[in-house]
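Title: Comparing notes on inverse folding

I've been comparing how different people in this forum approach sequence design from structure. To keep things fair, I'm posting one structure and asking everyone to reply with a full sequence. Here's the target:
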């Protein structure tokens, strides 16, 4: 039996029971198999569980949904940095460097418990949406982009984005899907979005950092600016400050730690 410190953190929110919850497992020198890591993520059953090991000049970081490993996850990276600073494993005077499947990612401490992430920007190409995807979302065909592994679809109004009721079974054959619109005129936000990733075992992700690596480049071209206040309009909801800097995106958010305990993992 090995014991691993475990935390559950709500990310991209300043209040409990909002934002996107992430599980965080902190290892020292323990090495588990990929099957064991996947089993832990399935047991935790959150949209992502992050696994961290000390490494030269920072930490090695991997993310798993309940069913698959993913190459990039914003909210679990934000939550990981928060836990490392809160527990004293990292100094708040310095950024934290994470070695990941998406290269080196850096978290910078900010004021008033804000944390800034330095992530890669994603750029897309125009595509025609498959008829089945439009039917699964319940929308008429509209222009869209495909960005590496996900569709980005703009709808005419925030109301349309908020009122979407996808058929998740029909959505499951498709890659990840971002649906977005400009925010209403009286809103403090520049744009809103939702993110569906049924193929990865999550019908709707509450708040998605990696989606905003796409949304930053999209809305920079549409709105002619590079700094945004964004809202992900899931049931839980979450707020992100987004800044595009060339081929990098700065994502800034807050966190609330809800659970601290120990994961007891059989070695056989």
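Reply #1:
Here's my take.
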């Amino acid at each position: 039996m090995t014991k691993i410190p475990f935390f559950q953190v709500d990310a991209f929110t300043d209040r409990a029971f909002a934002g996107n919850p992430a599980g965080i497992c902190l290892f020292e020198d323990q090495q588990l198999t990929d099957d064991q890591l996947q089993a832990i993520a399935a047991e935790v059953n959150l949209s992502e569980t992050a696994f961290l090991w000390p490494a030269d000049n920072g930490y090695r970081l991997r993310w798993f949904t309940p069913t698959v490993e993913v190459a990039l996850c914003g909210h679990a990276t934000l939550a990981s940095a928060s836990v490392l600073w809160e527990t004293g494993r990292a100094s708040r005077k310095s950024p934290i460097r994470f070695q990941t499947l998406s290269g080196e990612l850096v978290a910078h401490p900010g004021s008033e418990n804000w944390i800034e992430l330095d992530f890669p920007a994603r750029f897309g190409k125009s595509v025609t949406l498959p008829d089945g995807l439009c039917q699964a979302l319940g929308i008429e065909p509209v222009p869209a982009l495909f960005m590496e592994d996900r569709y980005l679809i703009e709808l005419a109004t925030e109301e349309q984005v908020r009122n979407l009721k996808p058929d998740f079974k029909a959505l499951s054959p498709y890659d990840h899907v971002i649906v977005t619109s400009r925010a209403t005129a009286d809103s403090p936000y520049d744009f809103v979005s939702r993110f569906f990733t049924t193929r990865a075992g999550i019908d709707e992700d509450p708040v998605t950092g990696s989606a905003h690596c796409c949304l930053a480049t999209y809305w920079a071209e549409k709105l002619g600016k590079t700094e945004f206040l964004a809202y992900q309009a899931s049931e839980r909801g979450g707020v992100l400050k987004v800044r595009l800097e060339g081929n990098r995106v700065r994502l800034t958010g807050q966190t609330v730690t809800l659970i601290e305990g120990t994961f007891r993992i059989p070695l056989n």
